[in-house]
Amino acid sequence: MYIILVYDVEQRRTAKMLKLCRQYLHWIQNSVFEGELSEVQLKELIYESEKIMDLTYDSLIIFKSREARWMDKEVIGVERNNAGNIF
To answer: What is the pLDDT of residue 86?
Structure first.
């Protein structure tokens, strides 16, 4: 499945979340990632994220689609990290 992931964690946990998310997805900008994951990979990512996060303060938002081709991507301004044409 195609995933867009956005996180908002306290500054001292940012580096750990960034490192974790980069293991699974393509970094787009700041706390935004995208890519293809299996159901098992997504569950692993969520499990590992919850170990880093303070669930009373931090947030993780995951947008899911069956396939990337069903989503349009439009970048206005500077694209921070070009993951290539993943569509």
So the answer is: 44
